[in-house]
Sequence to fold (475 residues):
Amino acid sequence: MNYGVEFQNPADAKTHARRYVLNSLFFIFTFWALNQVAYLFTVTEGVSLFYPPSAYAMFLIFLLGGKYLPVHFLAIYLGGLPYRDVFNYNLEMFIPDLRQFVIYGLAGLILRKINSPQKIINAKFFLSVMVASVLTALISTVIFVGGIGSNTLSFFSLIDRSSSFFVGNLTGAVTAIPIFLLFYQFWKLGWRELISSLLRNMLKPQKVVALLIIIILTALVIQLGKMDEQFSRYYYLILIPVVWSTVKWGLGNGLVFAFIGNLFALSLFIFSGYSHYGIFEVQIMFVISIVSVILIGLVQDERDLFYHRAMYDELTGLANMRLFREVCFTSIARANRKGHESSILFIDVDGFKSVNDTLGHKFGDEILQKLSQELKYCVRGSDIVARFGGDEFVVFLDETSDEEAAGVSEKIIKQLATLFRIHTDAVELGVSIGISLYPRDGADIDTLIRKSDEAMYLAKKEGKNTYRIYGDHHR
Fold:
């Protein structure tokens, strides 16, 4: 099942209305379901350790848009069923509902203004979400304090209640992040693909072991915390494997592990009858773990992005020459030890200037991107393809003779001839390929590239859309 959220070009008003109804039903049902889960973690009347529905609604308003604000209020109204008497709705029930609606609905609209709903998984989104989480918890606390009759409370009692309320709201907000991301993946992929993706990613032996360790340590933390009512003193036992998994497998995996581990901790806390111990500390543990995972995961993502930009061509996604030389240096050293041959192909697109001149650079870029993918399909996983510059590419064929390199060249020429026929009839395209062989034609990568380049120019001179081996014509 897939729920559309953009109606810029609706087929008709009926389709628009149908999608709106489906999204609205999903909004109300998931909000209600999260409320039911929150009731399971009730420690005292009106206080739950785990209350993400409001922040989850904020994310849905962010994703779906302001036209779902009436649905948001209806979800709040129905969310308490069957624990609240919605048929005797009164001012005492309306005020907290209105507080939720205004604070989280407005936060969702602001998030939508700041971030594009089409570009969610990025640093800007997560950082703005954390700011929104703190601000919504703070504003909600201020309104709460203003409505509890502070004149009847001592200063320390007021601080204690407002602190607990603030941390409780913050826990709900940060907890809604992994829940919303799970929904977002479901919205993009559907149930089957989502479950398949989770199973593929989570059932790897290392990850299963890491998750079991987190669950075991979580139980240990709760037991130790019960003894001296100092849960935070032992929390690093959970935080260490959660942070390690984030560093090793990325932000998404870290959020899943932090969410499961902490939800297990809250379950033990409630179902083992520890609710008279430190509620405040357990909630702070939850917030710290989620926020730590997000910050560390974003640093890892930025590092990976920086590495990718430094090592890969932006247009084609192929290796750039820096990465190409590093890989070739290692491969040549290995070939030297084993006494193997290796080959370099230098590939130039014939007639590419005509594409840019007649069809434009955008079309030319599309041709280069398709060509890059085809080149990768024509070689083995142990080989490497790189963009040399413009419409020129180089390929390193590991442990390959010149006869085998010639066979790969013929395959590339044939495959790209089909690609070019599909994409343009306006100009005639082809490829010229030059081949050099290690160690016969050179002992270093630059010499091999230069000689394969010379062989490529010879192929162009002799008719184009063909290949030449350096050694056949230069000796």
User: Anything to note?
Assistant: DSSP finds 17 helices and seven strands in the chain. The first strand starts at residue 42 and ends at 44.
